[in-house]
Write a structure and sequence with these properties.
This protein is mainly α. The chain is built from 16 helices and 5 strands. The chain is elongated.
C-alpha cells in the first residue's frame, strides 16, 4: 500500500465535528481533502510564499503585516543588503512558529520567552540572540509613531527579555584583537585579506569594506555612508598601516580582492574567506580563539576610548547613529582608568610610596653583608 504523502508546516483543526487544514507559517487555509491534487497545489503555493515574508500578508494587523510594513520603511532601506537578507530569514522562522497570522499587538512577553528559548535550541545561541535583536528593533520601530502603535500595539514585548546566556566554554565572538594578533595577521595574510584587515582597523564593517574602491581613497581616508545606519562619516586609515594598504599589485578597481584577484560580491563571502584563514592561524597557535573580521571594529572602539577619545570620536570612528553605542567603549575605558588611579591611591594609602618605607618596613636583603660578600 503506497505511503500517504506528508506535507510539512500544516496544522489541522477540528471544529464542530469537521476537520480543517491551514498552512502554519502563512496562515493560509487549505482544501479539506488532505493529500488531494487541489490540496497539494494550494500547499505548494503557500510554501512558495513562506520564503517571502512580504507576501505573507492577509491582515495588516498581523505579525506578517508588521514585517511587510517594516520592509517598506526608510529604516529598512538604510540597512545593508546582507542585514536585510538575515532579517528576512529570521522573519520567515518567526512565521514558522505560528506568529505570522497572529495580531502583532497580542504578542506577550511570556510567548516571546518561549519563542526565544526555542530559537536557542533549534538555531543555536548566536542565532537565537539575533532573533531577539531583530524583534526588539521591529517593535521599537512600531513605538516611534502613534499610528503604528494604534495598529501593532503600544508595547515592545521583547524589550525586557534578557539575552540568552552564552554556553559554557564558548569563546567570545568578535572580541577585540590584541596588538600582537594585529601585527601577526597583517604580516602573514595574503594581500587581498591584508587590505581588508587594514580597512577593518579603520573602523569599517564587512559590508563597507567590500564596496571600497581605489578612486575613493584620498588624503589617507574615505568619505562613506555606512549601509547599516545610513550615517555619513570620514574614515581615516591609521598612518601606521597606510603603506600596507597600498603595497602590492592592484588587480581590480575594488581595494579588497580574493586569492584570484577578484572582488568579493558580498560581505558574507569576505567573512567566510577571512574566517577560514583566521581559524587556521588559531589552530597553528599563532593567534587566540575567537578572532573575527568584525572584531576589528571593537578593536578600534576600544583603542579610541582608551586613548582618551571622546564619545563623538568613538561615534565617528565606528559610524554609529548615536552616542549610545559609543558609551559601551567609553565606560569600559573609564573603568580601566579609574582602576589604575585607584591602584595608585591604594599604594599611597598603604604607605608603599613613603620615602622611608623600604628602610623601615621591608628588610634589605643586602643588610649585614660585608663588601666582600656582595655580588
Amino acid at each position: 500500500m503506497p505511503k500517504k504523502a506528508h506535507f510539512p508546516h500544516v496544522n489541522k483543526v477540528r471544529w464542530r465535528g469537521e476537520l480543517y487544514y491551514y498552512h502554519r507559517p502563512t496562515g493560509i487555509a487549505l482544501p479539506r481533502e488532505y493529500g488531494s491534487p487541489a490540496f497539494a497545489k494550494a500547499w505548494a503555493e503557500a510554501e512558495g510564499r513562506r520564503g517571502r515574508p512580504e507576501l505573507q500578508l492577509s491582515d495588516p494587523r498581523t505579525y506578517s503585516g508588521l514585517v511587510a510594513a517594516f520592509q517598506k520603511s526608510e529604516e529598512w532601506k538604510r540597512l545593508s543588503d546582507q542585514t536585510q537578507k538575515d532579517y528576512a530569514k529570521l522573519a520567515t522562522w518567526m512565521h514558522d512558529q505560528g506568529a505570522g497570522s497572529k495580531p502583532a499587538g497580542d504578542l506577550t512577553q511570556d510567548r516571546c520567552e518561549k519563542i526565544l528559548d526555542r530559537a536557542v535550541r533549534e538555531l543555536g545561541w548566536r542565532r537565537g540572540l539575533y532573533v531577539l535583536q531583530f524583534n526588539r528593533r521591529l517593535y521599537n520601530w512600531v513605538l516611534e509613531r502613534a499610528a503604528r502603535k494604534k495598529q501593532w500595539g503600544e508595547k515592545n514585548p521583547w524589550a525586557d527579555l534578557k539575552n540568552p546566556s552564552r554556553p559554557p566554554g564558548k569563546p567570545k565572538a568578535n572580541r577585540p584583537w590584541t596588538q600582537d594578533e594585529i601585527f601577526t595577521v597583517l604580516f602573514d595574510a595574503p594581500n587581498g585579506l591584508r587590505r581588508a584587515y587594514v580597512l577593518g582597523l579603520s573602523g569599517l564593517d564587512g559590508g563597507s569594506i567590500v564596496k571600497r574602491r581605489w578612486d575613493e581613497y584620498r588624503n589617507g581616508g574615505f568619505a562613506i555612508r555606512r549601509g547599516k545606519t545610513g550615517e555619513e562619516s570620514w574614515i581615516m586609515v591609521p598612518p601606521l598601516f597606510r603603506y600596507l594598504l597600498k603595497d602590492g599589485e592592484r588587480h581590480s578597481d575594488f581595494i579588497v580582492t580574493d586569492q584570484n584577484g577578484e572582488p568579493f560580491e558580498e560581505a558574507n563571502a569576505l567573512q567566510t574567506r577571512s574566517s577560514k584563514y583566521l581559524v587556521a592561524l588559531g589552530k597553528a597557535g599563532r593567534v587566540g580563539v575567537g578572532l573575527t573580521l568584525h572584531g576589528l571594529r571593537h578593536t578600534v572602539g576600544k583603542a579610541v576610548a582608551e586613548s582618551g577619545g571622546s564619545l563623538r570620536a568613538i561615534q565617528g570612528a565606528l559610524q554609529h547613529k548615536s552616542t549610545r553605542m559609543a558609551l559601551y567603549y567609553s565606560e569600559r575605558a573609564d573603568r580601566k582608568r579609574a582602576l589604575l588611579d585607584a591602584a595608585g591611591a591604594l599604594d599611597d594609602w598603604f604607605g608603599l610610596q613613603s620615602p622611608g618605607f623600604r628602610d623601615s618596613k621591608v628588610p634589605d636583603p643586602e643588610a649585614g653583608k660585608s663588601n666582600g660578600d656582595k655580588a
